[in-house]
Amino acid sequence: MDVAPGEPAEHLTQPRPVRGRRYCLITPCRDEAQFARRTLESIVHQSVRPELWVIVDDGSSDETPHILAEYARLHPWIRVMRRQDRGFRKLGGGVIDAFYEGFASLNPADFDYVCKLDLDLDLPPIYFERMIEQMEANPRLGTCSGKPYMELAGRLISEKCGDENSVGMIKFYRIEAFEQIGGFVRELMWDGIDGHRCRMLGWQAASTDEPDTRFVHLRPMGTSHKSWWTGRVRHGVGQYFMGTQPIYLLASATYRMTRPPYVVGGLAIIWGYFKSLFQRKPQYEDKEFIRFLRAYQWRCLLHGKPAATRWIDEQQSKQWKSTR
């Protein structure tokens, strides 16, 4: 049944999610008026709707607060929290600070899954139903996502994210796995560190490219602050912080040169990484994690990422402990 934009969807037949399928969304956002309605509508019309959606407005100065208030009035399962405007968009740790403000407002025991969701996405209507089905089919799957596509000249272009982790703009997590890895670090590359921490503990992390799980990323990856150049440089800085070794970074950046913005995007990543290296900036302090990461990266270089991921998932299976 079709529903007009902004119309309450409570009259649609949709049973309350049973135990095992209860999920909540947490959305940090700032100045997303351009895209917010498309994301809100795509969530309202999910085949399996969230029990709760906490949207943390991180000091928006555009029409975002008015749009959020409109939808919260129409849908009682949407809760909006407002943070004071600091005057600028704070990436990395700032995004996760806002996420955790929302996370602190709920009881994790009330949910089976939690998802960090950006407010610049357009999702297919059975997206979360498919995520839950993937979790149900594989009890070791700790986090998963679909694949982001960008709209370019009337066509959808894949952002070409690896299969070995869920993507940062929409991380769907089993609550148990999220708690075991210690959640997200409040630094750049929080969305890379989490997947490797999953593997360290025997969980699996994945993203799948299927018609029902492909979504539109309305703001292309790495362009949420100033420009794509700043975003790609930031990615290089984040890779350095995480502990990525230089040879792997060069291989990864070379691959990125084949995606828009062609060539220069990869060069920006290299610049950010080696600038941080030469300046001896601080890195992630977990030495065991960095050893694990680099061993995995070497195996990726020697055998390819799919084979390396399968091998390490098998090796780490003995570390997996489910408590629920």
Structural features, described:
By secondary structure, the protein is of the alpha/beta class. The chain has two domains: 195 residues, Alpha-Beta Complex (Spore Coat Polysaccharide Biosynthesis Protein SpsA, Chain A), CATH 3.90.550; 78 residues, no CATH class. The protein has eleven helices and eleven strands. The strands form two sheets. It has a seven-stranded mixed sheet, with helices on both faces. Strands 5-11-7-8 form a four-stranded mixed sheet. Strand 2, helix 2 and strand 3 form a beta-alpha-beta unit. The protein is globular.
What labels describe this entry?
324 residues; alpha/beta; Spore Coat Polysaccharide Biosynthesis Protein SpsA, Chain A; 2 domains; seven-stranded mixed beta sheet; four-stranded mixed beta sheet; 11 strands
CATH architecture designation of the largest domain: Alpha-Beta Complex
The best one-word shape is: globular
Order of helices and strands: EHEHEHEEHEEEEHHEEHHHHH
CATH fold name of the largest domain:
Spore Coat Polysaccharide Biosynthesis Protein SpsA, Chain A
The largest β sheet comes out as: 7 strands, mixed
Alpha-beta classification: alpha/beta
- Count of spatially separate domains: 2
Q: What is the residue-averaged pLDDT? A: 90
- In angstroms, what separates the terminal alpha carbons? 37 Å
Fraction of helical residues: 25-40%
CATH superfamily of the largest domain: Spore Coat Polysaccharide Biosynthesis Protein SpsA, Chain A
Q: Over the alpha carbons, how many angstroms does the gyration radius reach?
A: 19 Å
CATH class of the largest domain: Alpha Beta
- Total DSSP helices: 11
Strand order of the largest sheet: 3-2-1-4-9-6-10
The tally of strands reads: 11
- Give the low-pLDDT segments: 1-13
